[in-house]
Amino acid sequence: MSGFTFTIDGTEIAAEDGQTIMEAADAAGVYIPRLCDHEGLRHQGGCRVCTVKAGGRSVAACTQPAAPGQTVESETPHITKLRRDLVEMLFHEGNHLCPICEASGNCELQAMAYRLNMTAPTKFPYLEPCRAVDASHPDIALDTNRCISCGRCIRASLDVDGKSVFGYVGRGIHRRVAVNGSDLAHTDAAITDHAVSADVCPVGCIIRKRTGFTTPIGEREFDHGLIGRKIEEKRRG
Amino acid sequence: MVDELPKARIATTSLAGCFGCHMAILDIDERLIELMKLVEIDRSPLTDIKRFRGRCDIGIIEGGCCNEENVEVLRDFRRHCDVLIAMGQCAIMGGLPAMRNAIMHSDEPLRECLEEAYINGRYIRNTTHGIPNDPALPLLLDEVYPCSEVVEIDYQIPGCAPEGDIIFDTLSQLLAGRFRGFERERIKFD
Ligand code: SF4
Ligand code: SF4
Ligand code: SF4
Ligand code: FES
Question: Which domains does chain A have, with CATH numbers?
Answer without folding.
Answer: 3-75 (3.10.20.740), 84-208 (3.30.70.20)
